[in-house]
Amino acid sequence: MGERIFIGVAWPYADGPLHLGHIAGAYLPSDIFARYHRIKGNEVLMVSGSDQHGTPITIKAEQEGKKPEEIANHYHQQFLDSWQKLGISFDLFTRTGTANHAEVSHDFFLTLLNRGYIYKATVSQPFCPHCRRFLSDRYVEGTCPYCHFSGARGDQCDECGKPMTPAELIDPRCKLCATTPQFKDSEHFFFRLSAFQDRLLAWMKGQTHWRQNVLNFTMRYVEEGLKDRAITRDIDWGVPVPLDGFEGKRLYVWFEAVIGYLSATKEWAKSSGDEAKWRSFWQGNEAKSYYFIGKDNIIFHTTIWPAMLMGYDGLNLPYDVPANEFLTIEGSKLSTSRNWAVWLPDYLSRYEPDPLRYLLSISMPETGDTNFSWREFVRRNNDELVATYGNLVHRVLTFVYRNFDGSVPTPGEFDSRSQAVIDMAKDTLNTVDRLLSQCHFREAMRSAMSLAQDTNRYLEEKSPWKVIKEDKQAAATALYVAISVISCLRTALYPFLPFSSQKLHRFLGFEGSVEDDGWQPHFPSPGQKLLPPEPLFSKLDEGLIEEEVSRLGHVTHNL
RNA sequence: GGCAGCGUAGCUCAGUGGUAGAGCAGAGGACUCAUAAGCCUUUGGUCGUGGGUUCAAAUCCCUCCGCUGCCA
Fold first, then answer.
1. What is the pLDDT along chain A (559 residues), one digit of tens a residue?
2. CA of A370, C1' of B49: distance in angstroms
3. Cβ of residue A398 near strand B, that is under 7 Å?
């Protein structure tokens, strides 16, 4: 019996398209991890969904004269399309707007309320009489009381960086209509996060396998002292509060969206026909839960969500939260408002998925921010993916196909050099296995690529194209060894490059899918029929660099 | 403002006490199965600055400069 692995991935906010930062931060690593565990034969459940609620979507809807659900649905469909094209293999990608999610959220809310972890309190909130709604902090603007900057927001001043509340602003105004807001009392629910301080600290001290940056950051945050947090808002777009007298309020998205991990699992179980199946991933010690997120989401997944789970009781806490750092674009911080971003649908409309998966894997922001540049993208594709790996596969398969009747050649005795190459292929499979199980994606990819490079050296030494003229058996042996290594690369690279691995699987004459073949050094049998080989990857024209760079920074629309 | 991280070859990045590393780019070479790809050799860094600890520091400590993140 294999392991059971739950993979929760950050819920993308459905008010705009995905960009490369999202992919490098959460979606690609989670997919690599999921594919790795599936090919190992482990039971995997990978879920996420669109985060559809909250103020920004309602604002965008108003600006575009649409309903919030239209905006949310549009991006939800776009997300699904992107997952399919990029090969992000969710078992379920749902949304927070389902009846199921509301039901699970209500259960969570009421359970925490009954246990005393949620309480009611009155707060003073800015209300815009013209827009006729309560304003969230960042939708109130005014003059900063510290530096007198006129464009300060209700949560912070961009000029001097000081944090504040809307009530502190001089001459506050509604960001949307510039009307002066009134402050009104409003009754809200709060999550008693402070009650979990000691339990969280004790729990965290046991999480020595977490990434150092995640652990340090979380510990510091908790040690500073946890404060209770409001979990309801005065808006009408979201999951309703399941109590009479709160019809005009909704659950705050930060509270409700994380519950999505559980509600998605329950939805998945229902549609599988076995409603109780969700328990196998959430209860008992058989399953490990991993949460893949960007570093901006660390606290929610290492502190707040665990506290909610502790309060609810009886559900598994996160086993690991391998949060990634950020991606910069052409050396500058990513910014959606300045359109300094590479949008995923845009990328996928012009390029193949595997080159991007390769680049983001080999330079994944695991331990620090990394930079994406189009020059680097073209270089990594042309000089590494195509030249080292793609060309290795192509030179071997075309030569064998032409000289050995389109079949895997029958090898003779292995000399020590050939045996060493075979051993190295097996070792690499083990190394990649270990590294992936520890979420060291970049190292794992490097290890696989260095096997491809060593195999190119081996071929050079054996020169089957020369040797074949006088000793066909010797050439056959060298080529058999090379094909065997390639077969291992097909497996080792599958989590990273699923599309090309599957193609290679067929070229080598295997049936079915790479995934069903399992994580093992499965060498082709002598005599096995090959398919006519084609290049796995294509070179990219350097001209695209300038073209793509020039797109950056220009405000576009219709994404 | 407080806290934290980063600053290593032209570029992208590894490297947490013991004679500076990889890939790519640059230079030279032999080969030709392959997407003019692959292979061999080679140029190149006083590891941001200034101090300190140590037999020994890119690696530990402090100052400063620059960038980034979190608190927000």
1. 589 999 999 999 998 899 888 898 899 999 999 999 999 999 999 999 999 998 888 888 888 999 999 999 999 999 999 999 999 999 999 999 999 999 999 999 999 999 999 999 988 888 888 888 888 777 888 887 776 777 777 776 666 556 667 787 888 888 878 888 888 888 999 999 999 988 998 888 888 788 877 887 788 788 778 888 889 988 889 999 999 999 989 998 889 999 999 999 999 999 999 999 999 999 988 899 999 988 888 888 999 999 999 999 999 999 999 888 888 887 777 777 777 888 899 999 999 999 999 999 888 888 777 888 888 899 889 988 999 999 999 999 999 999 999 999 999 999 999 999 999 999 999 989 988 998 888 888 988 998 999 999 999 999 999 999 999 999 999 999 999 999 999 999 999 999 999 999 999 999 999 999 999 999 999 999 999 999 999 999 888 888 888 888 765 544 4
2. 25
3. yes
- What's at A506, amino acid-wise? R
Q: A522 vs A426, A487, A511, A516, CA distance in Å? A: 10, 7, 13, 12
Q: Which nucleotide is nearest to A365 (CA to C1')?
A: B13
User: In strand B, which positions have an atom below 7 A from any protein CB?
Assistant: 1, 3-6, 11-16, 23-25, 31-35, 37-40, 68-72
- DSSP string covering A220-272: HHHHT----EE-EES-SSSPBPSSTT-TT-EE-HHHHHHTHHHHHHHHHHHHH
- Among A310, A325, A300, A312, CA closest to A218: A300
**What is the rounded distance in angstroms from the CA atom of residue A51 to the CA atom of residue A254?**
10
Q: Is the CB of A459 under 7 A from strand B?
A: yes
Residue A155 CB lies within 7 Å of the nucleic strand B: yes
